[in-house]
Amino acid sequence: MAGVLEGVRILDFGRYIAGPWCAGLLADLGAEVIRIDKVGGGEDRFVVPLTDEGDGAMYQQMNRNKRGMTLNNRAPEGQEILRRMVKDADVVVANLPEKALVALGLDYDSLTAIKPDIILTTTTAFGTKGPYAAKVGFDPVAQGMSGLMHLTGYEEPMRSAASWVDFNTATLSALGTLAAIMSHRATGKGQRVQTSLLSTALTTASPALIEQAMHNVNRVGTGNRGQVSAPADVFKTKDGWIYVIVLGDSMYRKWVGLMGEDSWLTDPRFKTDEMRADHAELFSERTQKWAETLTNEEALAALEEARVPGAPIYTPQQALECEHIEASGYLTSVEFPGTDRPVPLADTPIQLSGTPGGVKKRAPQLGEHTDEILSELGYSADEINAIRDAKAV
Fold it and tell me: Which domain holds residue 296?
């Protein structure tokens, strides 16, 4: 079955996560995406290497379902290749600073001079306005400036191990690109789609920022313990760790029943989620006393019977072995040259009943489809050899 974006051609000049994952999501939905690497490969290709050539784990996830080529678009021959590619494209994706876009000929003015109705999707660290516009940055920088790193950890701020700013920004970029494609189909006009790591982080942090602006609460980090209800924390069992969260009066009554202490229902200190959060330490202590008498399996079974949300805290290996994750098909294994076992990729996180996406092919090796793409652009074999001699690809 054809993907919903079949017929849409995307040039992906992205690096690391924010740009490539945006293009990757669109590739999952059927778009033809060409990943364009620097000659020799971009730095993001080699993060957590899996093969002798250095192909990395992050690259595998971000760039499945794409074809790949190398290009030096600073060389005259490379500039002509870029011009031909843009003329045939619908969307260009690049998470680069504004000056870098101009230097590479990927800024909106340069692209629209080649194809007036092109869609350009860009991501920067801080946006294109304000005193930080020219600064560079990665995911943890935005985490820190959003206020959320301050609320994680205890006395010392703590970054998240997950690159949630990058992934969320990529998803928003894909959403904006889809909107621009719909607009183009209705009007025939392209446009520029812009996202930034900081705007994504601030959006995620907005409830905490609103609370601070309105009530001046000056919250501090509480580690794994929640701040708006209780209990909400990590608990050690006889043989592992679990997370338990209780939110709302109905769930609270179920938790009290599980603990077997009805007096918690009538204690005036615990009338609301907010009041319970003010005494979160008491709730964590009580739940810990309960959890430490049980195994993980026993504790989770009791929570499920009481309909109180809880989950095991897995190591990465345990996540790979989880029967639910396997049965749900959330991970798809693909072969990649040079690896001694299949690579487990997270499959498309969006499920469409009529036009489903999915992992159809592995990420490309460095420059794997360069000759193929140049041939499609009209270059002869002799011309391709000359281009290679000029080190334009």
Answer: 232-236+241-312
